[in-house]
Design brief:
The chain is an alpha+beta fold. It has a single domain, classed as Butyryl-CoA Dehydrogenase, subunit A, domain 3 (Up-down Bundle). Helix content is 59%, strand content 15%. Strands 4-3-2-1-5 form a 5-stranded antiparallel beta sheet. The longest helix has 22 residues. The protein is elongated.
Amino acid sequence: MWKWIRIPKGIALLAFLLPWMTVRCSGQTLVEASGFGLAFGRVTAMGQAAEASDGASLNLWLILALLAIAGGLVLLFLKGREAAKFVLGTSVAAIALIFTGTWRYSRDAILAEAAKNGQSSGLDQAALAMIRVDWEIGYWLALLSLIAAAAMAWLVTSGSDTDAEAKMRSLASGRKDDEPPES
């Protein structure tokens, strides 16, 4: 099972290239972004690519998540099974960093930021209430693949990976555990 952890870790890294977030107002798309776009401040606003000129748009949490995923992949290739705890740690850390890094793009956070900036008139509140933030396939794929990598690394650290792999092979071949393999 150890060698298979590379697959979900690699998928998590590639998921940053896919669409992660779409912000809509009254059905019209205002902003779209991939995982890398959110991390490095490059989004598509109203159909045109936009990049913030200041460093404030960099999302350090998502950059750290990328580094955790890449670090876990490096450990998988350079170290043996003894790195399973570190691979588990990088997967869990990446999940936490993604949640932390994307919280500021939630609808509640956007409304709170607008209220803090003085956009609290009745008309502005009505417009802000129509904002919808949709999390796209890349976001969910990254999270699910990191959960799978963490579960697989946990099985390896607990020593249950050989049992789990044997059960998966028996299920795939269609025989029960107590049946001997066909010759």
